[in-house]
Amino acid sequence: KTRMEHKVFCTLVITMILGLSLLTQGEDTCNVEPKKRVNCGWPGVTEQECLDKKCCFDTTVPNTPWCFSPEAIETDDVEPGEHCNSNSNST
């Protein structure tokens, strides 16, 4: 019984860590300087419509897009934009 409780506890801890890391990742990708924001919406777009498009929504900075593309997450093994061409070299 103790061994099973330990497995359940470990599973819960791992699930919580993964959930928190996803939340943190989302916040980091929406931390885009206002002058670097790329519009992802249209005039009158609602927050929910913006989020449904997997975009970021922030109304706190005037004269900038409120619905904008998230910042790209760069990895060591893929250059920015490389993922778009990943199938072009395969035969």
UniProtKB/TrEMBL annotation:
Range of residues in the leader sequence: 1-26
GO cellular component: extracellular space
Source taxon at top rank: Eukaryota
UniProt KW Disulfide bond keyword: yes
GO biological process: maintenance of gastrointestinal epithelium
Family annotation (SUPFAM superfamilies): Trefoil
Domain P-type: 28-71
CDD domains on file: Trefoil (cd00111)
Disulfide bonds: 30-56, 40-55, 50-67
Transferase in keyword set: no
Record's keyword terms, sorted: Disulfide bond, Signal
Protein name: P-type domain-containing protein
